[in-house]
Amino acid sequence: MEFHPVLWVYSLIQWVLDKLFSPTPPPPKTTLDRPRIAIIGAGLTGVSSASHCVGHGFEVTIFEAGDERSIGGIWSACLQIHSIMYRFHPSIRWAAGYPDRQQIVSQITQLWKRYGLQERTRFNTRVTSASQDRSGRWIINNDPSFGYFDGVLAAVGTCGDPKMAHIPNQDRFKGEIFHSSKLDGKTAAEKKVLIIGGGASAVEALEFVVHTNAISTSVLARSDKWIIPRNAIVDALLAMNVFGQETIFSWIPESLLKKLFYRDLEDLAPTSEGLFTETPMVNSDIFRQIRNHNADWLRGDIIGFSETGIRFRQRAKGVPKGGPGRDIEVKGDMVIMATGYQRPSLSFLPPEVFEEPYHPP
Question: How many CA atoms lie within 13 A of 77 on its CB side?
Answer without folding.
Answer: 18
